Amino acid sequence: MTQLQKCDQPQVADCRQDFPALHQDVNAHALVYLDSAASAQQPTSVIEAVADYQREDHANVHRGVHTLSHRATDAYEGARDKIQSFINASSRSEIVLTSGTTESINLVAQSFCRPRLDPGDKILITHLEHHSNIVPWQIVCEQTGAELVVAPINTRGELDIDAFYSLLTDDVRLLAIAQVSNALGTVNPLRDIIPRAKSLGIPVLVDGAQGVPHMPIDVQSLGCDFYAFSGHKMFGPTGTGVLFGKESLLDAMPPYQGGGDMILEVSFDGTVYNDLPYKFEAGTPNISGVVGLGAAIDYLSSVGMSRIAQHEGQLLAYLMQKLGEVEGIRLIGTAAEKSGVQSFLVDDIHSHDLGTILDHQGVAIRTGHHCAMPVMDFFGVSGTARASLALYNNAEDVDRLVEAVEKARQIFA
């Protein structure tokens, strides 16, 4: 039975057998991995794709005339084609390969926004954002005199939609918004928000880092202008990412960085830049990582994103129910629409102490501010414990988590 055939089985969670890292003991306990929002584990097919490239096909991409360079280029550009199909971009020219969501957002900040912003212009974000969707806009506002405007949230961790719409005015030059909050799991109502922004002529960037691994993505249907995501959140290698941008916008944007491969002709009198998407891809890329990202997309496609969304939705409901039964627990982020994440605190146990005790029982969660310090400030906490789900998790993982939390309560009682 091949790697891809395994996930034709009825239960999506059966795919956990394809992830070798999950089949180990940690501190004399079978590992329960609930930290996929930080970085998801990789299936064997991804690991082997990277290893095969390194063993047999390693060479630099583009312009090489020898066989290994052709093989590397075919694999690298083949991954771009897979990404285009996976998110339904209209052209492969709209797929810019980056090091991750962070670089993708910085590229838009510096190449799209900076030349267009004047004092008095505004960039609109929300209180839910990851630091990667805050700091680049602060920097470009400092560079241009523009203003960063932040839409508020409510105590459930949902966007205050009326306040948001009141801030969506015609002096906003870009809306940058997460599809899913990495700290709370809140799913923002992009199907309503994006058309409202577009009716005012406001371009929209979506931080899709926590969306792509968990639900079907169609950027044409969504209607956004930019969509950024990372490979390591979706079972691929670290140091890989994607910026989708509408071709007309990317074509008008100046290069983000200069160097090799983003040029057609260089002289001391001037430079002719390469065509899309290559004018944004200076230097030797992370070839093996992109090959692995292509394999990760193959894997996700074989499982089916709709099936993954259904499986994780049912499991998240079970997770919230079981955690809610723990005495002294505080669930942080209880939005009506959530995906894959639950943050919590227990009694007065510090989140780091809680995470350490859980690790001693083989349960891996994330603790701290989750690169979302404004969210923590809103809820009046320094950090939370965060359990995050992926396709390979199951009800037994949730039960183990709850058992470990109960043990922590006993220790601190």
Summarize this structure briefly.
The chain has helices at 3-6, 44-57, 67-87, 101-113, 135-144, 161-167, 190-199, 219-222, 247-252, 287-303, 305-324, 351-360, 373-379, 395-412, and strands spanning 25-26, 29-30, 32-33, 95-98, 122-126, 147-151, 172-178, 204-207, 226-230, 241-245, 263-267, 270-273, 329-332, 341-346, 363-364, 366-368, 384-388.
- Rg (CA only): 22 Å
Low-confidence stretches: 1-9
Helical content (DSSP H or I, runs of 4+): 25-40%
| Count of structural domains | 2
Under CATH at level 1, the class of the largest domain stands as: Alpha Beta
Q: Please provide the count of β strands.
A: 17
State the secondary-structure class: alpha/beta
CATH superfamily of the largest domain: Type I PLP-dependent aspartate aminotransferase-like (Major domain)
Strand ordering within the main sheet:
4-10-9-8-7-5-6
The overall pLDDT average reads: 95
* Alpha carbon gap, first and last residue: 50 Å
Task: Write up this protein.
The protein is α/β, with parallel strands linked by helices. The chain has helices spanning about 5, 45-55, 65-85, 100-115, 135-145, 160-165, 190-200, 220, 245-250, 285-305, 305-325, 350-360, 375-380, 395-410; strands spanning about 25, 30, 30-35, 95-100, 120-125, 145-150, 170-180, 205, 225-230, 240-245, 265, 270-275, 330, 340-345, 365, 365-370, 385-390. The protein has two domains: about 50-300, Aspartate Aminotransferase, domain 2 (3-Layer(aba) Sandwich), CATH 3.40.640.10; about 305-410, Alpha-Beta Complex (Aspartate Aminotransferase, domain 1). It has a seven-stranded mixed β-sheet with strand order 4-10-9-8-7-5-6, sandwiched between helices. α2 (about 45-55) runs antiparallel to α10 (about 285-305). The longest helix is centred in the first third of the chain and has 21 residues, at about 65-85. The chain is globular. The model is unreliable at about 1-10 (pLDDT under 50).
